[in-house]
Design a protein that fits this description.
By secondary structure, the chain is of the alpha/beta class. The chain is 34% helix and 16% strand. Strands 2-10-9-8-5-3-4 form a seven-stranded mixed sheet. It has a three-stranded antiparallel sheet with strand order 11-12-14, with helices on one face. The chain has a two-stranded parallel sheet with strand order 1-13. Helix 7 packs parallel to helix 9. The longest helix is centred in the C-terminal third of the chain and has 21 residues.
């Protein structure tokens, strides 16, 4: 396998050990003579795969017994609709915190189904920070409070879990799930697209507190009812079996690394290396995000002279440092350094960044 360092924001790099295991098992899973893609989702083989995946995820995240783990489809985008259809009525108010691109899309979709109150927003400074919770304007009887814990495009991450009081706290955790310990008991529902820290695209996780099940509106499509999915143990219809299988391998890989606490220390090291390189560049590179809210997963930065952007990307590609171009909506650069990105990969990037700055200085 060609060794490159892939900094894509998603679909993102997977652990090399997992890819090699997938390769080894591709045509014959555990002596069955079948690929996982060929198995019945109701057969004993896949039942074993999905049950082990759930058990390992519960261990990694410390998920309490009164929460259901759902393996769903449609990406986090589907959750933007599924959430209000299940937890709010048309005349209910739902609270949203707006910290960037994905928050805005979630808000736009929620407005189709309920009254949206923007409890806080960082739009005044181009989504470069997380608003101080003391200034949030929450609704006392909101159906729920929603936030995105890590904005992938802007590189803004929450350093705290909001206090929602008696209101269910909902989190889009797509891009930093499993990157650090989280107290699941503080949430009503956590959802996450798989394609960043979990596995292939096509799979979405939802971790739902049981008392929030059975609240769907009568007009909610059957497939979008959390209770239907929970009662069917994520097998109401054919799930994304291969993606679940790969996710299960990633969970086992994480456990072998020492779990979420151990991977957090590695993530802290990687992020520190990259941000220190940016900050020490004398303005050649710049990170627009407030230091307290800088993401450990998605490091957004610009070059002081944007006319050098193309040369920077070409040089990076020549070093096999791939997919560093920032999102089209914000430009600049973005290095996504999820769990599977190695310290070696980040060191290769920071070495290149210093050399490039020196050559153009």
């Amino acid at each position: 396998m060609t060794q490159v360092f892939n900094f894509s924001a998603g679909p993102a790099v997977l652990p090399r050990e997992v890819l090699l295991q997938v390769q080894q098992e591709l045509t014959d899973w555990h002596g069955t003579g079948m690929c996982v893609m060929e198995m019945s989702h109701r057969g004993k083989e896949f039942t074993q795969i999905i049950h082990e995946a759930e058990a390992d995820l519960r261990q990694l995240m410390g998920i309490p017994s009164n929460y259901k783990v759902l393996f769903l489809q449609g990406g986090a985008h589907f959750q933007f609709s599924m959430l209000p259809l299940n937890l709010a009525r048309q005349d209910d108010t739902v609270d949203y915190v707006n910290t960037g691109h994905w928050s805005k899309i979630a808000i736009k979709e929620a407005r189709r189904y309920a009254n949206v109150n923007i409890a806080a927003s960082s739009e005044d400074r181009n989504f470069s920070y997380v608003p101080d919770e003391a200034g949030w304007k929450k609704t006392a009887n909101a159906a729920y409070l929603h936030y995105c814990s890590n904005e992938t495009i802007g590189g803004v991450e929450f350093p705290f879990i909001p206090d929602a009081g008696n209101v269910p706290l909902i989190c889009d955790m797509s891009s930093n799930i499993l990157s650090k310990p989280v107290d699941v008991s503080k949430f009503g529902l956590i959802y996450a697209g798989a394609q960043k820290n979990i596995g292939p695209s096509g799979l979405t996780l939802a971790i739902v507190r049981e008392d929030l099940l059975g609240r769907a509106r009568p007009e909610t499509p059957t497939m979008l009812d959390y209770k239907v999915q929970a009662d069917g143990e994520s097998l109401y219809n054919t799930p994304p079996t291969f993606a679940i299988y790969v996710a299960g391998l990633v969970f086992k890989w994480l456990l072998a690394q020492g779990g979420v606490r151990a991977i957090e220390q590695r993530n802290i090291e990687k992020a520190a290396l990259l941000y220190e390189t940016i900050d020490a560049s004398g303005g050649f590179y710049h990170c627009p995000v407030d230091r307290a809210n800088r993401s450990r997963m998605n490091v957004a930065f610009t070059l002081g002279d944007e006319s050098l952007d193309d040369a920077f990307l070409e040089g990076a590609k020549a070093r096999e440092l791939l997919q560093l171009k920032g999102h089209r909506s914000v430009g600049g650069m973005r290095a996504s350094i999820y769990n599977a990105m190695t310290v070696e990969g980040v060191r290769a990037l920071t070495d290149y960044m210093r050399e490039f700055a020196s050559s153009k200085g």
